[in-house]
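Lecture notes, unit on protein representations.

Consider one protein chain, 443 amino acids long.
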Amino acid sequence: MSKVVKFGGSSLADAKQFKKVADIIKADEERCYVIPSAPGKRFGDDTKVTDMLYHCYDEVAGGADFAKSFAPVRERFNGIISELGIDLSLEDEFVKIGRNFASCAGRDYAASRGEYLNGIILAKYLGFTFVDAAKGIFFDNKGNFDGDITNACLGAILDRTPRAVIPGFYGAMPDGSIKTFSRGGSDFTGSVVAKAVKASLYENWTDVSGFLVADPRIVANPEVISVITYSELRELSYMGAGVLHEDSIFPVRSANIPINIKNTNSPQDAGTLIVPTGTEPASKYLITGIAGKKEFSVISIEKDRMNSHKGFMRRLLQVLENHGIFPEHMPTGIDTVSVVVNSHELEHQSEKLTERLVEVVKPDHFEIIDGLALIAVVGRGMRSAKGTATRVFAALSHADINIRMIDQGSSELNIIVGINEKDFEKAIKVIYDMFILSEQAEK
């Protein structure tokens, strides 16, 4: 069985990092397919190559000389080649890029050249075959990723290529032009390749040793999540946590291929294993993770005997849809409903929305409350444990934090609470203390 390994920009920022990556790949013969990102930042004030390419393309489009504008990019790649000591010249590729920039090949093309050139260098350094992603990853005429054609074509190419480097982030439109993925593009490429080759494992190498139980900007030195299911990951990613964007894992999730998040700079760390189901051992703690987001608003509606008014919820939701507002959560009572929405969706239309809702649903009381934060406590271990919600509420109560909303999915994977934004950081900390620090103390 083969493994697919993807390395982020920080993992391939310079020659020193390239050598680390090569050592990692050579340490396991099953690591057959490699997806590189463009070189990232080497230090705090450095510039990512992708941003350099965007800048260069914009300058050339504005009439600037390509050679001068492209010089920093050329220097960056030639520097990596020189320090690695490999016999490789990218001059022909640089000339081709210059022609395409001059003919306005597009910003997607410009952005993709970082991965493309890095892929050529890495393939040469490893002795692997370079496979241009544009030859096997495809979009349809509307710019949507074409999974079926990609899986068939890429699978056929890689079936006859035992070891290959496939640059991340881009593919080709039907007319051959380059199209990039959105956020998490190289992660998505890795996922697509893993599905195409029916990989035993997709390793995603970054500069962190896996997912953390809580945001390290809020909780000091939070624990690493050892094992997490795709369902748990989706719940946490939705709430803003994550090393991977949730859309980027769909191909491997559909193929039941596990993902291992690993640290290029600390390869001995186990990282986080993302598995299709809960057959793997659960987290050593009752919960798997805590995540949250701010800037929510609550549309609060009260109406006497609301449950007896047929079509009430349908009319309410139709008004929201007509205004481009999509509910995040909808806790209800016999005569009340609270619709939680992203606050930015209400910008410049609160008054019109209020008028229309009053007209259509005729509430006895109506108000929009801003400044809400949502926190999700996620873990499959909660399903079989008694008193989880009680512990969440007790932690918040002891910290004098008022709970504005409570919601729990039918899967019992999560408990979501709504609180005032000013209490957000404190709430994350006390929940972490309740479920992680207290359990550590008991062991």
